[in-house]
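FW: tagging you since you asked about this chain on Friday. Here's the raw sequence from the shared folder, copied in full. Didn't touch anything.
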Amino acid sequence: MKRETVAEVQFSGPAGKRPRGRFLAQAKLASDAPENPFGQWDLVIEPVGESDEDQPERIIAFVGFLSPEAPSSELKPGARSELYYGRKLIGTVVVLASASGVRDPTQSDRDFLAQTEAA
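HL: got it, structure written out here
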């Protein structure tokens, strides 16, 4: 997964049942057909750092589709998707910034995050 998209993940459910570290979830996109009620694309979610103790239900993470066939154009700033484990809703993701196609390849992840926070 390229680290080109940063998103806020809002978890639902009890804290002890939330995924930790890097994980996969099914993303229910706005463009998904009705026959895919729980999403059809696996989204890789890689937390940027430790979760905020004041808001443990939210994390900032790099996100990207596992499959190169997935509609990466759906990961644009402001895009919102539901996240599922099987049929269970585990949260939502909102894209904050995406550098796809415009990011300088020499730019570090830290510089990209700093740009995102400044915007």
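FW: The chain has one domain: 5-118.
HL: agreed, and Confidence is low (pLDDT under 50) at residues 101-105.
FW: great, closing this out.
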